[in-house]
Each structure stands twice: as structure tokens, then as C-alpha cells.
Amino acid sequence: MKLDGYTRMAAVVANPIKHSISPFIHNSAFEATATNGVYVAWEIEASDLAETVTNIRRYQMFGINLSMPYKEQVIPYLDELSDEVRLIGAVNTVVNQDGTLIGYNTDGKGFFKSLPSFTISDKKMTILGAGGAAKSILAQAILDGVSQISVFVRSVSMEKTRPYLTKLQEQTGFKVDLYALEDISELQEKIAKSDLLVNATSVGMDGQSSPVPESINLPETLLVADIIYQPFETPFLKWAKSQGNPAVNGLGMLLYQAAEAFQLWTGKEMPTDEIWQSLTEKYK
């Protein structure tokens, strides 16, 4: 990697963030595309967020990525917001367009790009969880023309989730159906009619637990996806594969959301095939 007086910077901003593999992805892309850039991880306190955003202009950076807990907190410091950010209420990418700072959220696009030979248009989706990743996937599915969405959350989270789905309906005219994850018969019924089943919860990161009981039967053509990539194969995905269903983990979402951000910053396509190979070797 060549560093000189013309090198432009990008960064991921969060707390904690030192463990992030985003620098590996983006620096590989800068090198592969002969772009004079460097990508670093900035672990900052909340009191430094405003100054950090100011530094994007000050240092003529490409922009920044954001992770928890700053995806929502950054919004007041930006000049413009994309359509998906207005729906999700969270930013994961800031683009410095000649001094104008524009907030995007590439998580949903990244998720759907990671699904092989699948388009969500006119399809039915069941999603488990309603946190930040789920909101990104929901919003993008609606923008891409999904026909039906069923969201399952724990019964204790129902009341917290409902206002967001109501707001989403007001903004888009699309009604998302909400159910309790404990209602197994309803879960079985919705999954049986779905084209895509997504685990957008953190259940499975321990390598032992699954968000759904193994008594659930999956339709043959159902695509099953998990946003988790460590472990590489969660119990949820292992169970789906044992029923003969195609299954996709969250590593592709991580790569393709980065690719979307890289294109917004540089106007260049990230060489995802090349980087994917390095990532799978690293995490499998």
C-alpha cells in the first residue's frame, strides 16, 4: 500500500471497534483497485462524535462507517439523508461529497446482495428479531418490492417493536405483520408460506442455541439466512441444511455492505470475489 500526501482516509467509528475486520476488507479493496486510500478503526467516546464528523470535512476524507452505538447519534450532524436512512433511522455510511455529508445505510442492500440467485421482489419473508440489522433488512425489502413480511420477536419485545412498524407503515404504506416468537403454530404457518427465513437476532453466536425449535418443518425451496458469521455455521444454519435447505451466513452481508460503501466513496466496484476468498479462509 502506497501512502503519500495525496492519500485519502476512511474509517469505521464505534465503541468497541478494535476487533473489526472492516479495515481488512477496505484496505484490500483500495489495494486491488489501485485507489490511493487507507482505512482505519476509530474507537471514540460519545463526547467526541461531533468532532469526529467535523474531521471528515477537515481532512477531506472519503467518509466513515459507523457501528454501535453511533448509527443513530450521528444523524443530527449530517447534511442529507438517503431514503433508506429515513425508513431505518440509522446510518452506517457517511459520504463526503465535496464537503456535503450524506448519510446512507448499506446494510439492507448488502444483505440482499449476499443471497445467491435470489431477489426479494414479490416474495414473502419471515424475519426473526427487530433490532438494527432487522430494521435495515425490513426497509430494504420494502424498497425492493417484497410482497409480505412477518416479524417474530419475543413476547416481551412486542410493545417495543410495534411503534417502529407502525411508523414504517405510515412512511411506506406497507403493513408488516408482528407475532410472538413463542407462538410456534403461527411461526410454522408463516415459514411454510415464505420464500426467505432470516435470523436477525444474536441467538446462535454461542454456537449452541437456535432461535427456533427443531420441530419446525421448512418448505423445500425456502432460503434460510443468518446475519451471524462467527461461528461460520450457527446451529440455526446447521438445522436448515439438515432439512436440505440452502443456507447463507452473515459474512456475505458484511462484505457486500462494505462494497456498497466503497462504491459510494470511490465510484469503483469492490473486487468482492477476491476479498470473499480471503474472508472465508480467515473465518471458516
From TrEMBL:
Gene3D superfamilies: Leucine Dehydrogenase, chain A, domain 1, NAD(P)-binding Rossmann-like Domain. Pathway: Metabolic intermediate biosynthesis; chorismate biosynthesis; chorismate from D-erythrose 4-phosphate and phosphoenolpyruvate: step 4/7. It catalyses: shikimate + NADP(+) = 3-dehydroshikimate + NADPH + H(+). Shikimate binds at residues 20-22, 67, 92, 107, 229, 257. Its EC number is 1.1.1.25. SUPFAM superfamilies: Aminoacid dehydrogenase-like, N-terminal domain, NAD(P)-binding Rossmann-fold domains. InterPro entries: Aminoacid_DH-like_N_sf, NAD(P)-bd_dom_sf, SDH_C, Shikimate_DH, Shikimate_DH-bd_N, Shikimate_DH_fam. Residues 12-94 form the Shikimate dehydrogenase substrate binding N-terminal domain. Pfam families: SDH_C (PF18317), Shikimate_dh_N (PF08501). The keyword Protein transport does not apply. GO terms for biological process: amino acid biosynthetic process; aromatic amino acid family biosynthetic process; chorismate biosynthetic process; shikimate metabolic process. It is an enzyme of class 1 (oxidoreductase). Keywords: Amino-acid biosynthesis, Aromatic amino acid biosynthesis, NADP, Oxidoreductase. Residues 250-279 form the SDH C-terminal domain. Belongs to the shikimate dehydrogenase family. Involved in the biosynthesis of the chorismate, which leads to the biosynthesis of aromatic amino acids. Catalyzes the reversible NADPH linked reduction of 3-dehydroshikimate (DHSA) to yield shikimate (SA). Homodimer. NCBIfam families: aroE, PRK00258.2-4. This is Shikimate dehydrogenase (NADP(+)). It comes from Streptococcus oralis subsp. dentisani. The lineage of its organism: Bacteria, Bacillati, Bacillota, Bacilli, Lactobacillales. The gene is aroE.
